[in-house]
Amino acid sequence: MAAARHSTLDFMLGATADCNAVLKALQPVFQEQGMTETVHNWEDHGYLATYIKKNGSFANLRVHPHGLVLVDLQSYNDHAKGREETDQLLNKVEERMKEVFHGNLKRVKRLPAILRGGVIDRYWPTADGRLVEYDIDEVVYDEDSPFQNIKILHSKQFGNILILSGDVNLAESDLAYTRAIMGSGKEDYTGKEVLILGGGDGGILYEIVKLNPKMVTMVEIDQMVIDGCKKHMRKTCGDVLDNLKGECYEVLIEDCIPVLKRYAKEGRMFDYVINDLTAVPISTSPEEDSTWEFLRLILDLSMKVLKQDGKYFTQGNCINLTDALTLYEEQLNRLYCPVEFSKEIVCVPSYMELWVFYTIWKKQTEV
């Protein structure tokens, strides 16, 4: 199936644009391609010219009176000849604009083409809403579980990347994430009881079992995440997911909320609780967003199973989401017990943005 290739070329003129002059300058370039022209004139709002080719390709030329000239070209093939024809047309448009308006061009900007509808989806948004094109060259795994869509895509830079319901979770390159959510090497896990919430990629479990803990309990709701990762994310999880039980660990395929409630009722306590379930919600309306309610519940239950001198580790979100992060910190004041926290900013390679991690502990009462 051919993908739609969307190319853009932008010009910013140094002064008010003569819309008619721009249109007349570029008309011959498109007509040479055998494209049929339709022109719309909005008086004080400039021109829109549409050029259509018999093969289904088309171009839009939008001329704004304030000096912005936009060329959008869409073609329905991605073979070498088609890309070459598109580049040649854009080159001719750029050459013609420079020839006619050479003394009045402030900026010329051509972005890499966007491929839409291709077999491999290379485009994933950052947490703060910017579009990133990854160097994805293979769909390694793509399945729907009862809980979410699970994709593992291969990146030339980052290795295999786990993507859950459109959210980039972890790549094989992202040891920095795992280390940060474990305390950045500052903790001694020797002989300690550890509870991991989520973590189906196996990265946290794999790193902690190397540190001689007494026992690690991991609670992951989605068996299919584990199945996909133990096969396709071996650089992250090693062989730790091959068995749900080991000498110093156990993986429970359960919803963590009933498990936390059961542990709290039984009085079971942990030295460390690591929450790898979800990032801080982007929404800043906690009363309207059920994710905030879920997050507060997890926090409260986790504090109930955390030892008095224990630590709770979790990810926050992108450093640019200051409102959401501030709101998260406000939620910490609403827990059943008083807590204190610190945070660390880490560069996670595949996220392509700085990420905030939190360490939370129970406030020590003065005797």
Automatic annotation (TrEMBL):
What InterPro entries does UniProt report for this protein, alphabetically? PABS, PABS_CS, SAM-dependent_MTases_sf, Spermidine_synt_N, Spermidine_synt_N_sf, Spermine_synthase_animal, SpmSyn_N
> Which EC number(s) does the record attach to this protein?
2.5.1.22
The record's listing under SUPFAM superfamilies reads: S-adenosyl-L-methionine-dependent methyltransferases (SSF53335)
Instruction: Give any GO molecular function from the UniProt entry.
Output: spermine synthase activity
One of this protein's Pfam families, by short name? Spermine_synth
Q: What CDD domains does its record include?
A: AdoMet_MTases (cd02440)
**Which Gene Ontology biological process is one annotated for this entry?**
spermine biosynthetic process
The question of whether Ribonucleoprotein is a record keyword is answered with no
Presence of keyword ATP-binding? no
Q: Where is the active site?
A: 276
Query: Which reactions is this enzyme annotated as catalysing?
Result: S-adenosyl 3-(methylsulfanyl)propylamine + spermidine = spermine + S-methyl-5'-thioadenosine + H(+)
So, what pathway does this thing act in? Amine and polyamine biosynthesis; spermine biosynthesis; spermine from spermidine: step 1/1
Assigned keywords, A-Z: Acetylation, Phosphoprotein, Polyamine biosynthesis, Transferase
Query: PABS domain: which residues?
Result: 122-362
The protein's assembly and partners: Homodimer. Dimerization is mediated through the N-terminal domain and seems to be required for activity as deletion of the N-terminal domain causes complete loss of activity.
Q: Tell me its family.
A: Belongs to the spermidine/spermine synthase family.
**Listed name of the protein:** Spermine synthase
- Gene behind this chain? SMS
